[in-house]
Specification:
The protein is rod-shaped and about 85 Å long. It starts with a strand and ends with a helix. A 5-stranded mixed sheet has the order 3-2-1-4-5. The protein has 2 domains: 109 residues, ATPase, nucleotide binding domain (Nucleotidyltransferase, domain 5, 2-Layer Sandwich); 78 residues, no CATH class. It is α/β, with parallel strands linked by helices. Helix 5 runs antiparallel to helix 7. Strand 1 and strand 2 form a beta hairpin. The chain contains 7 helices and 5 strands. Pfam families: DEDD_Tnp_IS110. This is IS110 family transposase.
Length: 194
Amino acid sequence: MPISRVGVDVAKSVFHVHGVDHHDQVEWRGKHKRDRWLDAIVKRVPMGAEIGMEACASSHHLARALQARGYHVKLIAAQFVTSYVKSNKNGRVDAEAICEAMGRPHMRFVAIKSVAQQDVQAAHRIRSELVQQHTSKANQIRGLIGEYGRVAPTGIGQLRAALPCWLEDAENGLTNARLEGMNGLFQGARSRAR
C-alpha cells in the first residue's frame, strides 16, 4: 500500500520518519541526515500525502519546502504530540507519535508561516528583547542611584533627562568611580534607545 501519512522528527543532524498507509499500517521507518531527508521523502512518499512535524525553529521553512514538492504539511504544537509518545522519548518514537497525532480527527494544527510572516515575527521578537533590555538597564540605573539617596523619576524619558543632571552635579554624593560607572550605563541606555 502507498504511504499516506508521515511523521517527521526534526533534529539538528538526523531526521527520523514514520510512514503509514490508509489503514495505519507501518510502511516506512527510517532516519536520514538533514541534507538527505527531503530526497528520501520524495523517493518514498507519493505527492499529495500528508507530512507532519512538530512546530519548531526550522519547521516553517521545511514545511514550505515540502509544500513546493506537492505535499500536504501539518505542523503540530509539541504539547499535543507528547500524549502520543508510547515509550522512552527518542527520535523514532517522536516520529511515530507525530504521525499518530496528525491522524486524529480533532487535532489542532499550527498555521505554516510565509517568509514575510516570519520576518515580521522576528522583528517583533527582536524589538521586544531590546525593550526588555532597555527597561532592565533603566531599573538598574534607578537602583544604583537610589543607593546614593536619589529618587529616580518615573518614566524612561524623565530618567533620561535626569541622568545628565546627576552626572554633572558636583555635590551629588557620587564618587568618581560611581560617576564613571553611571556614565557607562547612561551611554548604554542612550545607544539602546536610538
